[in-house]
Task: structure prediction
Amino acid sequence: MKNKANLFKLLRESCETPREVFAVEEMIRKVEGKMPLIESVSDTQKKFAGFKFYRKKSNNYCCAVSLHRFIWIYFNGEIPEGYDIHHRDFNHDNNDLANLELITKDEHQKIHAAVKSTRRPAKKSTFICTVCGCGYEAPNRGNNAYCSAECKKKSKLKTCTCENCGNEFSATIGSSQKFCSKSCYYQYRRRYEIKKCPVCGKEFKIHPSRKKIYCSSKCFASTVKLREPRTCAYCGKEFSARINGDQRFCSDECSRNARQVRETKTCPICGKVFSTVKSRGKKYCSPKCYHESRRKK
Result:
């Protein structure tokens, strides 16, 4: 461009505010291809063209965009889709324009993969597989409990017994699978047994898993008012209760007192004798002993 220096001089003279001065100087730098100064504010922070960039775990300096990508866009425009900016010397701190290169993402991955393959191989040690028991060599990192993916898959399986046919099958640990196949599941669903109604004496079909006692709601309703003699579980006094109910105590007072009955137990972890409420079913003297028992399992 002819008279470039005169044009730049006129632009600089026409500026009235600091913002206009900054914009003109940035435009002149782009035209001349001069690299603005990259200021190192600290070990984890750099400043370029008025923007602050912070160091990430990948060792790249980022703001909304990575610093090396921002520098490329600053001078050469937008980066095409499917392309990356590569550091020629593999140094993320050297963001000079001459050190940056526009290449495809596939080429970028191949370059870095080739560099990784030339690095010193990781030290290997001999481990014993917890499933098959065979020895194998592996790097000293990660989980070295299994020799293969197949053994790792087997470690997550448990042996169960089918509730329909009685055959053993494998299921994932933690699953609630009860049948070896869908056919066994449907056969179990179709199973029925014959029960006799204790009120009218009528026989009726019902699945074994159900706890139905009466043949109809009418027979059940007729037993609501029927009562039977029972003995209080706390004071031993006899009282009358509904046949269908689960009442165990003669009064609310006996029920409250039964919840406060204490008993003496021995901790199975530390052997300490302690007192606890009987209804709670507490086994250990303290949370520390409880967590210790969990670790032993």
